[in-house]
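Troubleshooting log. The previous structure file for this entry was overwritten by mistake, so regenerating from the original sequence record. Sequence copied from the archived sheet and checked twice against the printout by T.R.
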Amino acid sequence: MGRFSRLEFGDSKPSGTARADQLLSDADHFLQEARRYWLAGDFEVALRNFCRALEQDRTRIEGWSGQVLMLIELGEYKEADLWAAKALELFPEHPDLLGLRAIALARDARPRHAIQYSDKAVAVERPTAWAWLARAEIFKQKADAIVLGCISKAIAAAGNDLTTVKLQAGRILRERRAYPEAISYLTDVVSAIPTAGLAWFELGCCQQAIGLPQAKASLEQALRINPQFVPAKRAINRLEKGRLFF
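Regenerated output below.
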């Protein structure tokens, strides 16, 4: 099962009202920490916190979806698929999990299966923002109308998750080299969450790609937030060695 084979956890059922409140409090704490580290670009630590949240309360869908997302971020696509399948046993047909499994399968070069899971994710009565983001991800090489339509639907369905949805939308658009559109979303993210090192990194990469002088400052901000953020270090090194825009 690979280096994450010990993610398994036991059945943590509360044994009374006080214990149930404590479990909920602990799960909330670990979920908040996981989100903070994810936004800083520290996917390993975020993963550990999502796992710890599930150790406290295995009914938290955010813990399951976050765990799968972090495995995807770490390039562990087979593990992500495995844990998405486990999560779907508890939450059958949940659009977030179906969408994340679609991403894992697409990244693992299984496009036909990825499309099948994405179809299921958006076929539910109320598809979530992450279901639409997943669809934008797996169709990111298709026509603008398809990708932008999925992103628009994700934004409309985002609710309280609008900032993180914009972050993912910006990342997808950067991969499509739609840099001005990506910059628009990512600028909103760093304005709302200045400590989001991942967003600063993505923003800096977009700015660098089109020759904007703000690129270095954005990348350096990402590194200040997370000094261990290797992609930001590499991007700054490439920029300084090339002296392309400065």
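Residues 95 and 121 are 4 Å apart (CA to CA). Archived copy saved in two places this time.
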